[in-house]
Design goal:
alpha+beta, Immunoglobulin-like, 4-stranded antiparallel β-sheet, 4 helices, about 20% helix, about 40% strand
Amino acid sequence: MSARTICAAAIAAALALPSPAQAKLLKFHAALDGNYGSEPSHSAATGRATVRVDTATRRVSVELEVKGITVDQLWDRLVAAPIGPIHFHKYATAAGGDSELALPLPFGLGYRPTATGMHVSLKDYDYVAGAALLKSTLSFDDFVAGMKGGLIVLNIHTDKYNPGEISGLVVAD
């Protein structure tokens, strides 16, 4: 084999390998209120979330600004549980139906009070580790497909509204 043939073969092989450029940073958002979902609370509270998903590392980042709900109003039972008072659900269909827990936002340092409610920040959260806290069988790929397909809802549970005071559908930016 000539040096030129070997070089061409090496370049072709390198181009066939997966590259970081093939990984994607997917962007989603959710507008939360008390009128969404199967059990609307009609709460005046609102929230706005941005969700970033890194498909290469399988990590999720969430920034959530909530007005009208304070940290001390979160459902105490879930504050102390791995499920957390704020988490993602995947629904069977876009119209609702059965749901399964997908990913918690565990209570901790990422939750901080603000003048009008609270801010929750979760950076580079390992999806597999988070789903394991819930014993969720929903794979990372199914979670991403659910967000792309309008099947994932972000829900905030409070002492006043255990089923969820506010929630919102996660949609692509």
